[in-house]
Protein 1
Amino acid sequence: MGAHLLTEQHLASLAAERQITYTAIREGLYSESFPVYTAWFNIHNPMYEIKIPHSGDSPGIAWVKTDDLGEATAKIIFSYVKGSGVFPWVNRVMLLSGPRAISLRETVDILGRVTGKSIKIKEISADEYAELPFKEKYWYRGAILLKDYTSCWEAFKRGEAAVVSPLLGEILDREPEDFKTTVRGLLAR
């Protein structure tokens, strides 16, 4: 997300001028947000074909559960506030990602196993995606151009969402929840 990177750059420039100190937390893609990247797949009413501008091949996404991110962020803040004055993340960026990157094809396979359906990805163009019928239901008119949003799949192809860091597990002092477990929990709701 370009705006996030610009914010980090601005914070770093202010820190270089000794105007502030900062810690930026980069969160991986939320496991619970998978519908955004799977043509609004609904685990309670699954479709058999997911049309997206991506083949589903690797490198993939290091999905991460929002509850794990919230817990880790709280621990980071607590560590800073109650610490002994030494905080290793001053003027630095922290990456909190899921425990492993999985391709969109594997993501869809997991959705299929959890829902008991055989689901396939059909790769379509960005133009075709922008015209899918869900655009009026899920995207605010004028707030975002759906075709422009398809750049996220280009970022996936470049591996920008596949970066795995052990930091989240270290902060939690346990392995972060995997994507399949999170999806099973969502299905149970």
Protein 2
Amino acid sequence: MPFKPVRIAGTRRQIGQALGKLARPLMTVYLDQSATWQALRPWRGHAYLQELAGHAQEALPAIWEEFEGLAEGLRIPAADLLLWHCRGDLLHKTTDGCTSVALQAADGERWIAHNEDGDPYLYGRCHVVDVQPDDAPGYVSFYYPGSLPGHTFGANRAGLVQTINNLRTRTRRAGVPRMFLARAVLDCASLDQAAELLAHMPRAGAFHHTLGAAGDPRLLSIEATPGACSVETVARRYGHANHLIHHGTRDTPQIVTDSSRARQNRIDALVDTWNDASGEADLVAALHDTEGALPILRRAPDDPDDENTLATAVFALDDEHVTLRIYDRKARPSQEINIK
């Protein structure tokens, strides 16, 4: 069955090694065909990259150990893997897209849903992993080959949910690479702990995080950039594409692609039609919307950002539970996972 979780457990290094081994057969071909990897090559050996590595090692030593295990499992140099992990911190434009939506239902149930958009080469070549470290809650996440989980969509066994949208800011600042921070969120035990981590950790790149948690009535939209962290609470319904839209961050220098602008305008129009009777079917319909030349559901071989929708995720949260349903461009889910 598509997206059946691959279970991984052990120490941090053992988990990294297993993730690397899972991706090893694909990694060389994947990088060879990647325009992003070609654009990164001039950064090889740059002192700034080592500065980012120092921030990651100091701030997140356990995740750095996972990263080292990942390099071992992939059998590629750690310096090259670090370069790949810092792609969004070094390049102003990468082939990572995504659209997220969130809904607060009248009965207290909450939904976070997400289109994972990425390199079209990866369609059908990604995994879902169910990871249990020895020293953390454990999590379920969509897994790009050779990248630490967390920067896509996932949730942990403490009931914390996270979806990530790429932001193409034009500023760089020495700090923890954004993919390491997104992975660190999945080790958090609460919504407040995750928000605190994102607010106070020095950040090298920018991501949009949609966060929720079982037992917590809030849904948070967080735009975390190298110079700011804007947190908004979703009052009722919400949509976000791939550029900064919060009042406190939208004037940050950034690249807004035609696709991101079109998807933001369209998702805003769709969520405005939701009412007290709206639920999961409405979120899926919005993320599978194909209206316009640059639609939310991205399947075009000539997509201007070189991105296609790889999977759609819907997280249902209530006071005690988190359930994930994954859709493969179809109206019915191909996988359901009870996370908490």
Protein 3
Amino acid sequence: MKWSTFSSVLAAVASISPAVATCPVADVSIVRHEGESIGSVHRVDNFDLYTSDPDECGLEQKYDTAVLYLTDVFGIQLPQNRLLADSFARAGYLTVAPDLFDGKPAPEDLNTPGFNLTEFLAKYGPQHADPIIEKTIKYLREELGVEKIATTGYCYGGKYALRFLAPGRGADLAFAAHPSLLEDVEIANVTGPVSIAAAETDSILPPARRAEIEALLKKTKKTYQVSLYSGTQHGFGVRANVSDPVQKFGKETAFLQAVRWFEAWSN
């Protein structure tokens, strides 16, 4: 099944009998902000992988494209990350999210005594993340037979969403929300379509840096998109305060931005 618009996705979800589907279907949005996640964790090589399958929702899978979900520093252990991976499954995409932090992600409160973010990022830099992502891509290609891979990355993961769109790295297109530590060369080397969702208030991705990223993407001659969401802060793509309607809209619309990007450019 292929849905070309969000409304058709909702129609498909609404038509599923609760007796058949294990996913909640009463909500008017396919994006879940709370509740139990429906995916599962299993071991691949020497790391854990969170997998969310459209079959778990009683939906048909888009077998030719899978979503490689690259988390923020809070990892697959963060409920919001799992729920967002599940939301991609509801949109019809097999979604896998590797544990990039050996089961020891950053605490939800980065100001927790004894936690040093600089040391954490140094420990879990490309020398650590690259092999895990490479093995995940190999697993998708060789074990699951996936033809195309759409990377979606948030904050920390946004860097790698573009990094693995370089020649020979395995991804076919990318979406990143409020990416951090993204280097110029990683932008310049992309070989496929790139979509970015940016927060209005973001010290990591301020207006000047957004302009630089846009200029670098333009030079690649690849299809690209950079969308700015007012009333949002860094992290809104995953951890928005959904009691605030502006932030809730931003999170959900950034998700739909990713889904529409994948639908448009993975065919």
